[in-house]
Amino acid sequence: MNLNIYINDNLAKELDFIVAHVHKKRNTLVQEAISLLVKSYQKEKWPDSILSFQGIHSYDKWEGFEQNRKELKEPNADIF
């Protein structure tokens, strides 16, 4: 795919500085930057081992999550 972008002169100078130091083409660096941006927006998914977890059936002393919270104090009504 061909994509034309316009950047300001200061950003172009900074990009050219990096190009000279890493010995890569502008196009390559822009592709790498876009790839990092796309990856940062992708939602992470729990592994299948977690998603399919059915509990530990041999553990018979489970009293539920809330049983472990009995000793906690109630939060203040106004936290500010």
Description:
- By secondary structure, the chain is mostly helical.
- Helix content is 42%, strand content 0%.
- It is elongated.
- The N and C termini lie far apart (52 Å).
- 0% of the residues are buried.
- The mean pLDDT is 86.
The total count of helices amounts to 3
Low-pLDDT residue spans: none
Fraction of residues in H or I helices: 40-55%
Q: What can be said about the biggest beta sheet?
A: none
State the end-to-end CA separation. 52 Å
Question: From N to C, what is the helix and strand string?
Answer: HHH
Radius of gyration: 26 Å
Q: What overall geometry do the principal axes of the alpha carbons give?
A: elongated
Counting DSSP E segments of at least 2 residues, the number of strands comes to 0
- Mean pLDDT metric: 86
How much beta, percentage-wise? under 5%
The chain-level structural class is mainly alpha
Give short descriptive properties of this protein.
single chain, 80 residues, 3 helices, elongated
What is the element layout, followed by pairings?
Blueprint: H1 9-22, H2 26-41, H3 48-51
Briefly characterize the structure.
This protein has 80 residues and is an all-alpha fold. 42% of the residues lie in helices and 0% in strands.
